[in-house]
Fold this protein.
Amino acid sequence: MSDLFFLPHFPSALSQLPWYALLLFGAVIAGEAVERWLRLPRLLGWIAVGAVLGPHQLGALDAGGLEALRPLLDIAIGMVLFELGQRVDLSWLRRNPWLLGTSVLESALAFGLMYVVLLAAEAPPLLAAAAAAIGIATSPAVVLTVARDLRAQGQVAERALLLTALNSVYAVIVAAVLLAWLARDYAGDWRVGVLHPLYLIFGSLALAAAFAGATLWLLRLLGRRHEAQFFCAVALVVIAVWAAASLKLSVALALLAYGAMARVFDRRRLFVSLEFGRVGRILLILLFAISAASLDWSLLASGAFVGALLIAARLAGKALGVLALAPASGMPLRKASLLALALTPMSGIAIVLMHETARLYPQFAPALAAVVVSAIAVLELLGPLLTHFALVRAGETAGEVR
């Protein structure tokens, strides 16, 4: 034993902890500065600090440290998706089935146009399909955060939340089906190709139903006490994220379905108005900062051309889908155009889907990242601005939350 055994040894397990604190502190300060002086969404400041401190810029947070934060990232995404599932009213689709048609059409057109332009850019068909599937999803975290900060309510805000929830589900399902083709090409076993997507989709929905049932059972015991419900919901969301990850299911699909099922099954309205408050806010800041830090921004230049094609095709597909059925769904064309802009963000779900695909099939990762990361990086910055602009111009905001 060394005579100086009592002195600290570096690097220690906690050597990255000050940088995580700096990430949170810097993101909060930058977010407030962006909102106060530029009158722009706070999350742009959170994203900027994450990008600067990440391993591809200053390197204050290394790749290993970010990987260690993956469970925290999953919990943050899980809370966002659960809250989104709670906020969307699926009975709205029964009253106005054209909304479901709008959702399917904008997602299908976005997928189709992205697939075609990537093929035209000489991307392999399977790579083009995977990138197009990831591009279907609008970022739930961005839309929910901007809408909440602006206290937005109205046609554009509510439809944006509904369409975001639905196209996120479509993206997860389409990506799962494409895993079958990846399995055929890389795993060489047709059984994996057939069974894995089925397990991923139906297993995630079964897990969501189980947690929704357990949640409502607990709420009957707790009653309508807000604080007790808050702690219960936080604990159950964390456990649901852990369960989905442990069972190798889709965290995104499971948590979004969990929130939606908890609302649909809650016929006695046991849930009081649920928001994750300051705990959720901290996780939300870390979600944007860590997501930005994990992106390899050097790919922005190398994939700029293909990324620009992907962004243009995605915007065109969503806009055409929303505008085509706007009159039938009871929405003026002006507001429909703003709704299409509000669906621009692409970050959280896209990053999760990209990481999940890369984890399962690492041979596929470099080519997929080269195509997708450039589009995600641009829309991570441009998307919040367009959503903010759309909600403000729609006249549905009640002012900034301080």
In short: The first helix runs from residue 17 to 37. The chain has a mean pLDDT of 83. The CA atoms of residues 149 and 401 lie 5 Å apart. Residues 68-278+306-372 form a domain with the Na+/H+ antiporter like fold fold (CATH 1.20.1530).
